[in-house]
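User: I want to check something. If I give you two sequences, will you return the structure for each one separately, not as a complex?

Assistant: Yes, each is folded on its own. Here is the first sequence with its structure:
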Amino acid sequence: MAGGLVSGPAFDAARLDAFLKGAVPGLSGAPEIVPIAGGQSNPTFFVSYEGRRLVLRKQPPGQLLPSAHAVDREYRVISALAGTGVPVPPAVLFCADRDVVGTPFYVMDRVEGRVFHDCTLPGVSPQERTAMYADMARTLAALHNVDVAAAGLADYGRPGNYFARQVSRWSRQWAEIRTREDANVERLIAWLPANIPADDTSRLVHGDFRIGNLMFHPTEPRVVAVLDWELSTLGHPLADLAHSAMAWVSAPEEYGGLRGLDLDALGIPGLAAYVAAYDAAARHGARMLPFHMAFALFRWSMIFEGIAARAKAGTASAENAAETGHLAAAFAKRAVDLID
C-alpha cells in the first residue's frame, strides 16, 4: 500500500513518509506500507522504499497501562544488543512524537528470513531441523551470556528474586480471576514458593523465547534475528529456557507443541538434548530442574485461565473459552505430575 491511510490502525502515510525522509538519509520514492498480520499486541508494518526495507512497530491506539506496550524498551534492548552476538534487527530510530503515527513507534531494518509458527518446521529436512534447534539453543545461551552492565542494561529490570515475584504475581491473578476450582493449581501455589532453588542468577531474558519469535536465514539453518522483545527484562535465565522448552511438553493441538510426535523421524532433538546444547553454550552455570518446568507450566496455565476469565466476562471471544479453560487445567495437571 503506497500513500493514503493504512488500516489496522489507521495513520497518515504521507506524514510518516515526510518524517522518515527527514530522519533517515537516502530514502526516496513513495513508501509501500503493509501491515504485518499475526496478532502482535504492538502493531507492526513493513515500510519499503527503493533500496531500503524497514519495519515499524508502534503502540496500539487508546488508553494503555503505564508499563504496557513499551516500544521504547523494545528499541532500547535491540539497540543495546547490536554487536553482542545476539542476532537482532538493526535499530534505526525511536520516535516519541504522537503526531507522526498517533503513538510512539520505532523503526528497524527489515531482516530477510523464515519465521515458523509450527514447531515441526514444515518444509525443512530432518538434518536442517536438527541444526535449527541447535542454533535456537545457542542463540538463547548467547542472550543469557550478555554482560548487561557493558550493554548499558543494568537498570533494565529488577535483578534478583525473580521466581518469588513471578509466583506471587500469577498466584494473585488466580485469586482474582479464577473461573473454576482446581486442586492442581492450589497445589502449585503452595509448592512453588516453598521450592524455589537457591540460585538467584539474573540475566537479560527475552520473556517469550520460542520458535515463532525467531527468524531463520532464508536458506541456512541458523537464526538471523530474535523478534518481539516486548516482555524482555532482567530475570532468571532458566525461566526463559523452561518457556522455550514448553514445545516438548505440550501437544500439537495445544498451540503447536511436539509432545507425542516422532521427533527422531522429524530430526528434532529431544528436550534433554536441547537443554544440553543450551548448557554447553551458556556461561552462568545454573541447571534446569523440575521446578523450572513446573513454573513454566503454571505460568501458561494462568495465562490461559486469564483468557478464559475474559471470555466468560464477555471481554474476549467466547468461542475459545472452553478450549482455553481446558488448556489451563491441562497445564496445571502436567506441572503437578512433574513434581509428584
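And separately, the second sequence with its own structure:
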Amino acid sequence: MTMRPAYFRRLWITLALTAAGFAQAQPSAAPAREPVFATVGQRTITVAEYRQALAVATRKKYYHAKPPEAELAAFQREVGDDLVNRVLLLEEAKRRGIRPDRERIDAALAGYEARYKGSRNWESNRERMLAAVAQQLEADSVLERLERQVKAVREPSEREARAYYEQHKELFVEPEQVKLGVILLKVDPSSPQAAWNAAHEEARRIHKRLAAGADFAELAKLHSGDLSAGRGGDMGYVHRGMLPEAVHAVVDKLAPGAISTPVQVLEGVAILRLDDRKLARQRSFDEVRERAGDLWQRAEADAAWKSLIAELRKRTTIRVDESHFAQPPGAAAKGRAG
C-alpha cells in the first residue's frame, strides 16, 4: 500500500515552512502583529506561512510557476486546506501518543550536516537551522506514522473482493491488442522540410513495391530505422495507448494483413502492417482476484483517511480568511449581474 502522494504533500509544506526563515516547526500561535490566514481550534496559521506554502506548491505543480487563471481559486483553496489538515492531523497524532521515528530523523539530520558542511551560511546559523529542520522532520514523521496506522486495513474477504470486482468491472478489462509490423524511415524532428519530403517520397516508392507483392520483412530489414528492423519490422502485440493516437487512427481502419499508406509520426514516416487484432476482453474474477483485493484494500484505506480528516474538521472550529483566495471563474460576473 503506497502512501507517497500524501507524503509529498506534507513534504512541500515542510519545504515551505522551513524556507520561511526556518521559522516555526508547524502552524502555531502567531504574534498579534502577524496577519492570520486561519485559526484551527487554538492554533493559527499566518498569512506568511500560507503564502510560502502556496509559492512552493505552485513551483512544484506548474512548469511556469503560475497556475492557469481558471484553476487558481481551486488551487489556492487546496493549499489552504492542506495547511489546515496538517494542524488537525498533528493534534490527532499527539492525542494518540504517536512518537516520531527518532532513528530516521537522526539519519536525515546527519545528511544535512554532511551536505552543507563547509558552507559559511550553514556554520553561522547551524544550531537554529538544525532545530527548525528537526521539528519539521518530527512532525512529518508522526504524520506518516498516523497515516500508516489509519490506513492499516485488513485484507478483504472473498465476498468483498468479488463485490468490488462486480462494481468496478471497467478496471479489469484487458485492452485491445494489435500485432504490428513497421517500416520506419527516420527523420530528425528538427530536420528541414526537404528531409521530410524526401522521406515521404521514399515511403511512397516502398509502398508501391509492397502493393506489387514485395516482402514486407525484407524491405523492413533494408530500409527501416526502427529497433524492430532486425525482426523484419515485427513489433509484436501492443496495447492502445502504447502508440501515438494518430497511428492507432490509421491501424483502426486496417483489416488483418493490410498495409497502410505512409503516415508521418514524430520519428519520421512509417508504413504499418496489421498482422492480428485481439479485441478488448473482460477478465474474469478468478483471473484478477488478487488485484481486486488490493484495489479494495486501497479504496478502504483512502476512505478511512478521508473520513478521519472529515471528522477532525467537523469537530474543530476552523476560520479561514478567504480574502486570500481568488474568486472562482465567473463569480465576479455573477455578482455584477445580481
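Because they were folded independently, the notes below concern the second chain alone. Residues 1-13, 19-26 have pLDDT under 50 and may be disordered. The first strand starts at residue 36 and ends at 40.
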